[in-house]
Amino acid sequence: MNTDSAAHRGAGREPHPFAGPRPTTDGPVRRTLLRTALTGAAALGTGLAAARPATAATPTRSAPPRPGTPDEAWRELAAGNRRWCTYRERHPHETPAVRRTLTTAQHPFAVVLGCIDSRVPPELVFDQGLGDLMTVRTAGEVLDEAVLGSVAYGVLELGIPLVVVLGHQSCGAVRAAVEAEESGGHLPAHIQYLADQISPAIDHGEEGDARIDATVDANVRLVRSKLVAEPDLAARITTGRLGIVGARYELTDQRVHRLA
Ligand SMILES: [Zn+2]
């Protein structure tokens, strides 16, 4: 633990920069009510601003604005990952003041669809805190209806401008899918579903560990392509309000890099 981090945690007065009023105009009443209900605000019909406690009304002048565009959101994640992989984490937005602010609203700036792997928790590898990321995690970033609905909720209802599909080095789900195909065996329980979803991404130009490694990348691209093809998401991409990027985390140096 470095001194910056210790000071940051101990301050206890950190305002959350992304918990104030949304930078854009509110959507239809239905969306406001849905957002209110799902974020736990008690005062239905009064709007999020009215429901906030007075102590959390306004971000301080020094607080940075919430990333509002896909590029801004990615830059924030990239900066956090640079801190993480150089052991200069800030562990932002964890203080008692932040927790109080977040009792009535949330305005995360990115959805991260990552793997369940215990070595790749999005909030840590991007050095983000409470209220910053909406995370969805399934083995091998596999999609199903619940995952698609979760991503759509973040984008359409919360107005999140960036979705990151985050694969990683040495993914066990990808390895299982590759080995199941090579052996012709059937995986137990619902694990076969995961393998079936990853299967179209299996790289047949490589062998052994290189095949698994190449399939990690191909699987990220496959998942991203499925998300991009979702009509409601595609409409936002077209107008520049949403970016969907593929990325990969390396266990060896803890860096995240985008996949073209
Ligand atoms: Zn994995």
From TrEMBL:
Q: Where exactly are the transmembrane stretches of this chain?
A: none
Q: Which Gene3D superfamilies match?
A: Carbonic anhydrase (3.40.1050.10)
SMART domains per UniProt: Pro_CA
Q: Where is the composition biased (Low complexity)?
A: 49-61
Q: Which residue ranges are recorded for the region named Disordered? A: 1-29, 49-72
**Family of this protein:** Belongs to the beta-class carbonic anhydrase family.
The record's listing under PANTHER family reads: CARBONIC ANHYDRASE, CARBONIC ANHYDRASE 2
* Physiological role: Catalyzes the reversible hydration of carbon dioxide to form bicarbonate.
Entry protein name = Carbonic anhydrase
